[in-house]
Amino acid sequence: MGVLLDGWMTELVLALSVVVLALYLRFQRGYQHWKRKGVPYEEPTFPFGNLGRSLLGQKYYGDVLRDMYEKAKGKRFIGFYSILRPVLLVRDPELIRRILIKDFASFHDRGVYLDDEEPLNRQLFFLPSHEWRHRRVKLSPAFTSGKLKGMFQMIQQCGRELAHVAAESASRGSPVEVRELAARYTTDVIVSVGFGVDSDCQRNPDAVFRDWGRRVFAPGLKASLSARLNFISPHLAHLLRIKGGFTEVSSFFRKMIADNVEYREKKNVTRNDFIDLLMQLKNKGFVDGDKLQNGNNAEKTYFPMDDLAAESFGFFIAGFETSTTTISSSLYELALHEDIQRNAQQEIDTVLERHGGCITYDAIAEMSYLDNVVSETLRKYPPLPFLNRDCVEPYKIPDSDVVVDKGTAVVISLFGLHYDPEHFPDPERYDPERFSEEQKAKRHPYVYLPFGDGPHICIGMRLGLLQTKVGLANILSKCCVRPAKNTTRHVTYNTRNVLLLPAREIELQFVERC
Which of 22, 167, 269, 309 has the fewest CB atoms within 10 Å, i.e. is most exposed? Predict the structure, then answer.
């Protein structure tokens, strides 16, 4: 029996060795791709290519890309490997402009895996280009300046509450975890302007929408691995189809949206919010105000209930999380730089004096230094610190002999661009004056891309900026912010997420203004 077992184990070891050797040889041949193309490349390691530390959760993906960007100084682009897939990291701002805008037709896919078994994934960000184009056109009317003006009073109501919460913290003298503070505010805003519901997150930290927001961004190991693979290795994500316990979140949002729509339709309720726009698409196939052709709407696109729920969910998660990062990071930097904070407060005071002490849509538009503060925060802390595209047809890189094959992934490192001293001298320094009109005119416009650009530019950019500025203006008009005893001086990031989430809590102290 022992002899038979030994023989079986020997055969198994030999078989596995042959498989591993065959895989190794296959990878080694694949790892010659960029060499054959004549493209400078980062030397890969079997079996993860150049992304082992990110895939294993040892280093944040944005930092991995930044390291490669910095090592390739002086080069327009550099190749690397995501497991076996060749990826081109582009450094040259003019080539970035071509990829995002001029030659968009060759790079119109994001290259992100869509698990079509999960209905909530059918949101704008994940859709393939043939569906994305129509969806984008139909959703754009939700984010016009007119719509934002109509939403402003709801946003400002949440902003006033944020200032009250900060002032109460100041009177108690207790430190505040600012990401949680900001998340409760942005959740209130998004639920209010998106769904016409009062979520009461700022007064009730255990409110239902805040609870579900935490669940989305504090997933288990499987979910975090799945999220990274969706961006880093879509082919492997499709092969493995890792499920991450998203069922409860999905069920809640789909039921919440279905109940909301049913109530409005039965009661004939109309509100100036995101759900109202989606209901128009569901029932009429177009949004009131769509451009007309020959007296008819240009095109009708009817939204089934699952797509309506998916876009509502996308509006929720993108709307609260990205602005949470920007608000909390701004407060963190202002706490460390009291002179910049004073400049921002002086401008807020001056503008509000012209507007009778009221924070209005027009008042926010006049706060140019506050806009610089937010821009500098987005430079240092872009919520998604990379842009990714797929090459959909053979593409010859201008002024080179390199032809990028169809199916090749293309990545732009925002950390790399935003921290490049050639574009932003002394990049670790926080300096809003970088975004004065004079300084912006000296830079190539495609070295600063916190929202992307071109047809794929973030559709909610203006709403995100507006709720961020409203939140900051309300706090800074009433309070000063200072470092607390445990405030970190070096922010590190959660290695299991692709979004920019700090690895540790950020505590700050609010102080009432004199």
Answer: 22
> Which pair of structure tokens corresponds to residue 259?
């109940």
Residue type, position 478, single letter: K
Distances (CA, A) of 499 to 19, 237, 270, 327, 438: 36, 18, 35, 15, 31
113 residue type, one letter: Y
H or E element, residue 144: none
CA 360, CA 379: separation in Å to the nearest integer?
26
Q: How far apart are CA 417 and CA 93, in angstroms?
A: 9
d(CA 314, CA 249): 12
- As a whole number of angstroms, the distance between CA 434 and CA 445 comes to 13
DSSP H/E element including 280: helix 274-283
What is the C-alpha separation between 264 and 262, in angstroms, rounded?
6
| Domains of the chain with CATH codes | 37-512 (1.10.630.10)
Q: List 482's β-bridge partners, or say none.
A: 509
Give every residue of the chain whose pLDDT is below 50, as ranges.
292-295
Contact at 8 Å (CB) between 37 and 31?
Answer: no
Question: Do residues 366 and 351 make contact, with C-beta atoms less than 8 angstroms apart?
Answer: yes
Rounded CA-CA distance 270/248 in Å is 29
What are the tokens at 67? 């390291």
Nearest to 407 by CA among 421, 394, 425: 394
Q: Cα angle vertex 415, ends 411, 416, to 5°?
A: 70
DSSP category for residue 43: P
pLDDT for 292 equals 44
The predicted pLDDT at position 105 comes to 95
**CB-based contact 410:389 (threshold 8 Å):** yes
Give me the helix-helix angle, 145-172 and 178-195, nearest 10°. 150
